[in-house]
Amino acid sequence: MSRLNKMASEGHITSVIFFASWCPSCREHLVHSNPKKDLLIATFDEKKQAEKALVALNTSTPCLLDDGIAKELKILDVPFTLNVIDGKIQPSLPKK
Fold first, then answer.
1. pLDDT truncated to tens, each residue of the chain (96 aa)?
2. Ranges of H-type helices in the chain
């Protein structure tokens, strides 16, 4: 979580999108991600599955594997977006 907070405070990201490769709503959501402003976090996935999904969607948005952030933030469902406002991470509703 500290790595995510650091990236947010340095202005490197504006949205953090939690997704899973097997989730149809997530895949649709990722099509609209912005590679210059968003960060994807693959949760409930293994690296190979996440990478395969991103290649299929032809997205170049940076992606990290979830290392406990979703659990720490009590995120139980995907897609889930956290917005970064004034360098602070703020939860938001998933885009439908």
1. 777 778 788 877 889 999 999 999 999 999 889 998 999 999 988 889 999 999 999 988 889 999 888 888 888 899 999 888 888 888 665 444
2. 2-9, 24-31, 47-57, 69-72
At 12, the amino acid letter reads H
**Which residues, including other chains, have CB under 8 Å from residue 90's CB and lie 6 or more apart?**
82, 83, 84
Which of the four CATH numbers 3.40.640.10, 3.40.30.10, 3.40.50.2000, 3.30.565.10 does domain 2-89 have?
3.40.30.10
Domain ranges of the chain: 2-89
